[in-house]
Structures are given as structure tokens and as C-alpha cells.
Amino acid sequence: FNIQKDSTTIKLISTLGNEENIEEQEEKIRQTIHEMNNHRFSAVNELFEIMKNSTQIATESDITLLQKIQASNNLSQAEQKLQQKSGNVKSAEAELNEAQEVFNRAYKKVKEFLQKAKQTLDLNSLSREEKEAYDELPNTLDELEDE
Known about the structure:
Number of helices: 4
Structural class: mainly alpha
Radius of gyration: 53 Å
């Protein structure tokens, strides 16, 4: 038989011959086992704490992700409302521009009619009472608008 000897085998062989050494070795082995069990217990406790912290971090990460998703949804809704309101403003602006054009054309026609009326009417041919009545009438569009 070819047996390779390691340190544990050598220790066991060296202690076999001596009963006192066997009791000492048993005590040392018990202490070593006790120390190893304590070390394992500490490692398990440390692993438990790491897992507990990891779970807490994962939960916080999930909560943060959900908040981010909610914020993103709120932003999308706000952007949609803004686009809708922007469209409403553009539509109102177009209506205002169209109304302004209609007003400007009407204002221009009224000015033309006033000019034609002044040209057509011969103020010298009117009596004094007619002239006074004519002078009391609005003479400009602003005066007409004020009434």
C-alpha cells in the first residue's frame, strides 16, 4: 500500500501511541469543531443580514421604479392636455384672425360709404336746420362705435 501522508494523518498516527495525547487531541478537536460551528453561525447570520438588506434595497428600488412610471404617465397626460389646449388656442387664434379680417373689410366699406356720402351730399344746398341735424350725426367710425 502506498499511502500519502497529510498533516492530519501524521497527527493521528503520532497520537495513537499515547493515550494522554488522545484525550488532549479529542479536546482540541472538540474546540476546533466548536470554533468552526461558531464561525459557520456567524457566517449564516451575516448572510441573513445581507439577504435582509438586499431585500430592502430591492423593495425600495421597485417602489422608486413604480414612482418613475407614475411620473412618466403623469407627464404623458400633461403633454397630451398641453397639445390639446395648444390646438384649441391655435383654432381660437384662427377664428380671431378671420373675425378681424371681416371687421377690417366692413370698416373699410363703411369708410368708403362715408366718403361717398360726403361727396354726393352737397352741404351748401341744405337748409340751416338740416346742416345742424347733419352735424349732430356721428362723423367718424369711432364716433359711431361710441354710440
